[in-house]
Amino acid sequence: MPIVCSGDLFDRVLNDKCFQIGIETSTEVAIMRAPRMGAASTTIFNGTALWVTGGHDSTALDTTELLTMPMVAALSLSENGTNLPKLKQGPTLPMKMAYHCLEMVNSNVAILYGGTELTVDSPAYRHVWTTDNLGNLDKEPEVVFQSLNDNSNLWQPQAFMKQGHAFHACGVLQLRPKEFVVVAAGGEDEIEVSTDNVEFLGIVEHDNNVVVVRNEWKEGPRLPTTLMGASSATTEDRSTLFIAGGLVTYSPLYSSTAIYSLRCSMTGFCWWTRDAIELKITRDTPVALIVPSKTKVAESKYFGKYVYHGIRKVNSQDCTDPTGS
After folding, report:
1. Alpha helix (H) residue ranges in the chain
2. Is the pLDDT of residue 311 over 80?
3. How many CB atoms lie within 10 A of CB 142?
4. d(Cα 27, Cα 17) in Å, to the nearest integer?
5. Is the model more confident about 168 or about 324?
6. Hey, is 75 helix, strand or coil?
7. pLDDT category of residue 293 using cuts at 50, 70 and 90
8. Are 287 and 234 in contact (CB under 8 A)?
9. Spatial distance between the Cα atoms of 214 and 201, rounded to a whole number of angstroms
10. What torsion, rounded to 10 degrees, do the Cα atoms 204, 305, 196, 245 define?
11. Residue 261's closest CA among 198, 190, 325, 321?
12. What is the pLDDT of residue 317?
């Protein structure tokens, strides 16, 4: 079942709990070390742990936290689940950041990109980093995480994006066997203006989960509208990136109910489509998850088997191989 951690309850009151989302109810499963909003997270160690990074309380954070599935399993066996475990401390980020992206390229390598420090003189970041050794199952996740925290060379800088992105949608698509493209879509740019800009970074996987990152980001097909604070989710086969909700910055500003999808052909032709089905209510900075089509989770049909029904093309562009090869 999905797990969601922390966030803003209302009026900047931060939630310090992690919840496991069930079919009918949600259950508290853990406590954050530092409550935060605007964090980025991903599952690591082959899906056995959740890594929560950055975000902000009153200021941007560079701390990270780890929730392992054994911690959740132990809670389910405890008396009424009253003794909530606290997340483990993770390695420090290379910069303080919120509203950034963290994605797994493969089972071993993560990529961290974009975000903002939320200060007057700190525009949206163009920075990009990768880190590896996240598929190591020879030791307990906590042990591996401690070794990562002690590694001064944990974060390896990569090519800057062409423009800054914060509050952006993101994901990793697979174009061909062992060829991937990292996506940064929309968000807020370096002059704090909402953008429809989309950028791609090509990555090639070699043996033993080692990857080679291209040295330049490429422009992708623009979003159908300027959009920031949308949530994104990628299908398990990495053929499609969905983004939902967000703020559309036309006058007047409004929250969106639209769902868009990005696909790329093996020849490098990429396009956006808008689903005929929309969210029931407007949402900005929501959380979106891919769930199996047979799982009865609220609004799962928008990201399940029904997503291909009634789509219409709203924008397309020949990207001439977004991997840059």
Report:
1. 69-77, 141-149
2. no
3. 15
4. 10
5. 168
6. helix
7. low
8. no
9. 7
10. -130
11. 198
12. 41
Q: Which domain holds residue 202?
A: 159-325
Distances (CA, A) of 301 to 36, 38, 225, 308: 29, 26, 24, 10
| Residue 297: band (very low, low, confident or very high) from pLDDT cuts 50, 70, 90 | very low
Q: 39 with 19: CB under 8 angstroms? A: no
- pTM here is 0.84
Q: What one-character DSSP code corresponds to residue 210? A: -
25 found inside a domain: no
Please indicate whether residue 16 or residue 83 has the higher confidence score (pLDDT).
16
* Rounded-to-integer distance, Cα 60 and Cα 94, Å: 12
How many distinct structural domains can be found in the chain? 1
Tell me how far apart the alpha carbons of residues 238 and 144 are, in angstroms, rounded to a whole number: 27
Contacts of residue 227, Cβ cutoff 8 Å, sequence gap at least 6? 169, 185, 186, 187, 194, 196, 243, 246, 247, 248, 249, 256
Instruction: Tell me, yes or no, whether 192 lies in a domain.
Output: yes
DSSP string, 237-260: TSSEEEEE--EE-SSSPEEB--EE
Q: Are 98 and 74 in contact (CB under 8 A)?
A: no
Note whether residue 89 is domain-resident: no
User: What are residue 224's phi and psi, to 5 degrees?
Assistant: -65, -15
- Cβ atoms < 10 Å from Cβ of 7: 19
Q: Does residue 213 lie in a domain region?
A: yes
Q: Are 256 and 312 in contact (CB under 8 A)?
A: no
Is the Cα torsion angle 285, 23, 53, 101 positive or negative in sign?
negative
**Predicted confidence (pLDDT) at residue 82 exceeds the cutoff of 80:** no
Per-residue CA distances from 321 to 63, 181, 229, 243, 249 (Å): 36, 10, 27, 22, 30
Give me the pLDDT at residue 142, please: 67
